[in-house]
Design goal:
Blueprint lengths: L10 H19 L6 H8 L3 H7 L3 H23 L7 H12 L7 H14 L3 H28 L6 H25 L8 H12 L10
């Protein structure tokens, strides 16, 4: 176990340090053992200081889950850089980012496995999950709409929504396979399989990264 050095910083930075320490605990020990005392030890602070930022363990865990969900979405959104000229390249990179580290790795799987059962029984976690899912799907809908327009089609809201739901399903399924048994796909990398699957869903529109 590594102990963080808790430096003098702004309120926002201190809160972020505590969230990061919480995620480290959850990844290594699981949700139940990520106690306030354990997080405080790793962060190099007192449990009392944690309570200054989070009124309860539940609130601390909710903040950690929100960090996981928004962090994954921001990483893939950054990969689909709007500075690229091709919408097809942006969607290509968005899909690849979802299926490669740091979004798809052992730590991400550990955190997902720890949190997902909580989503079914805790309304606060369920709301965080719903918000994150809709944000992710909205970003995907925009990309799909741009790809269709670039291919000369008139984007239809219903079709874009249905395509984004289907593409998200492809990404989720392959993400889970890749993080659980990634060694089985060394000869057939999952990002390539995802791209081919999405191209089929799009009616044969080819996706390719910019040169």
């Amino acid at each position: 176990m590594s102990r963080r050095t808790f430096h003098r910083a702004s309120e926002a930075e201190r809160r972020q340090d505590l969230i990061n320490a919480t995620l480290d605990c959850i990844s290594e020990l699981g949700l139940q053992r990520a106690t306030v005392r354990e997080v405080a030890t790793r962060a190099g602070v007192t449990p009392g200081l944690i309570r200054h930022y989070f009124s309860s363990k539940d609130q601390m865990l909710q903040a950690a889950y929100r960090e996981v969900m928004t962090g994954m979405t921001s990483k893939v959104a950054a990969a689909a850089d709007v500075g690229q000229t091709s919408a097809r390249a942006r969607l290509h990179d968005f899909i690849v980012a979802n299926l490669t580290p740091p979004v798809a790795d052992g730590r991400s799987l550990s955190l997902w496995a720890a949190f997902i059962s909580h989503v079914r029984v805790d309304p606060a976690f369920a709301e965080i999950h719903r918000e994150s899912y809709l944000t992710f799907r909205s970003a995907l809908e925009v990309l799909v709409s741009e790809v269709l327009a670039e291919a000369g089609e008139v984007p239809d809201d219903t079709r874009c929504r249905e395509l984004s739901i289907a593409i998200n399903g492809v990404i989720d399924g392959l993400w889970l396979e890749g993080t659980l048994v990634g060694d089985l796909f060394s000869e057939t990398p999952l990002p390539g399989i995802a791209i081919k699957s999405v191209e089929a869903l799009l009616g044969g529109i080819k996706l390719a990264a910019d040169d």
